[in-house]
């Protein structure tokens, strides 16, 4: 029997968090003009309405899990500074279990452009064979907008059912695509092509990657680069590998939840208290050996949104 696919939601700001950590506001009132302090004070009083209002999502199914988070630190700063888009998650995550296609796309700024691209790709996959995936990616690229900001990264992996020993991958832009092996404790980054998705006249080709027993794939937007221990001088690869081996079943949840961690940084005699998650972050982990045939044609698109006002 095919395992169920579940989507869970978790708060960006937990109940009572601002009252529990008043030091989060210190940076906004230090060396600040009086008129600006009044604005910050007014915003501070309204912040409880944001608690448990905005959510980040986690999706889990047989052989895969994924999460997308707007970044707690980024969102908090957007609210405090009255940014035009106080809450947004430009990252877009795509899960297509019936065709074994998994992808993350990340555009610059506060925009839903990646969701537009992913939605169009999904529409093609509903009517055209997945064997033509490379052609479909290029069709979407050709139809994309022509503005300078109409570009997005693309980290994509496809596991053809007819070739269980290979995967097809594509990495465009500064997102990440890792191939890791849990028994061998190895991890390598796959190389990116120079053009971003949505670049006029660009052509993208899927690359074939051989699989060995124990291989898993991790797709991530560039927000994952902030997930590193603050008391160690480890690079991103070492941190990702450490997270995988310490708790592989909860790897995706732990990386996304890292955005909600409150940390203290000492700079001379001054201590700064802040949220993690200075950027959107999206992650997908796929274990091809555990993927199950899924005859339902439903696919899942998470993220890629802009919230104008708090409710």
How would you sum up this structure, described in words?
- By secondary structure, this protein is of the alpha+beta class.
- The protein has a single domain (9-307), classed as PPM-type phosphatase domain (Phosphatase 2c, domain 1), CATH 3.60.40.10.
- The protein is 24% helix and 30% strand.
- It is built from eight helices and 15 strands.
- It has helices at residues 17-20, 26-29, 34-46, 72-80, 113-127, 133-143, 236-246, 251-257, and strands spanning 6-11, 55-61, 64-69, 87-96, 101-105, 154-158, 166-172, 176-181, 186-189, 207-210, 215-220, 262-267, 270-275, 281-286, 300-307.
- Helix 5 crosses helix 6 (133-143).
- The model has no long low-confidence stretch (mean pLDDT 90).
In short:
By secondary structure, this protein is an alpha+beta fold. 24% of the residues lie in helices and 30% in strands. The protein has a single domain, classed as Phosphatase 2c, domain 1, CATH 3.60.40.
Question: Features of this protein?
Answer:
Phosphatase 2c, domain 1, alpha+beta, single chain, 311 residues
């Amino acid at each position: 029997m095919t395992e169920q696919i579940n989507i869970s939601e978790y708060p960006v700001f937990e109940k009572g968090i601002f009252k529990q950590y008043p030091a989060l506001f210190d940076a906004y009132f230090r060396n600040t003009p009086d008129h600006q302090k009044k604005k910050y004070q007014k915003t501070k009083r309204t912040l409880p309405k944001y608690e448990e209002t905005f959510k980040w999502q986690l999706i889990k199914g047989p052989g895969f899990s994924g999460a997308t988070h707007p970044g707690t630190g980024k969102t908090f700063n957007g609210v405090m500074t009255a940014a035009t888009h106080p809450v947004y998650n430009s990252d877009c995550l795509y899960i297509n279990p019936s065709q074994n296609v998994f992808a993350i796309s990340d555009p610059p700024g506060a925009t839903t452009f990646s969701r537009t691209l992913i939605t169009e790709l999904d529409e093609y996959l509903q009517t055209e064979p997945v064997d033509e995936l490379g052609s479909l990616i290029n069709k979407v690229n050709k139809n994309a907008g022509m503005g300078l900001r109409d570009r997005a990264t693309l980290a994509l992996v496809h596991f053809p059912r007819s070739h269980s020993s290979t995967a097809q991958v594509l990495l465009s832009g500064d997102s990440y695509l890792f191939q890791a092996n849990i028994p061998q404790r190895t991890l390598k980054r796959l190389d990116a092509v120079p053009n971003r998705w949505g670049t006029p006249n660009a052509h993208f080709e899927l690359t074939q990657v051989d699989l060995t027993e124990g291989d898993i794939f991790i797709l991530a937007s560039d927000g994952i680069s902030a997930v590193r221990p603050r008391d160690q001088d480890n690079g991103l690869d070492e941190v990702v590998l450490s997270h995988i081996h310490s708790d592989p079943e909860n790897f995706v949840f732990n990386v996304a939840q890292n955005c909600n961690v409150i940390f203290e940084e000492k700079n001379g005699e001054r201590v700064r208290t802040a949220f993690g998650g200075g950027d959107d972050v999206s992650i997908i982990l796929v274990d091809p050996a555990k993927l199950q045939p899924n005859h339902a044609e439903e696919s899942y698109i998470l993220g890629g949104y802009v919230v104008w006002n708090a409710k």
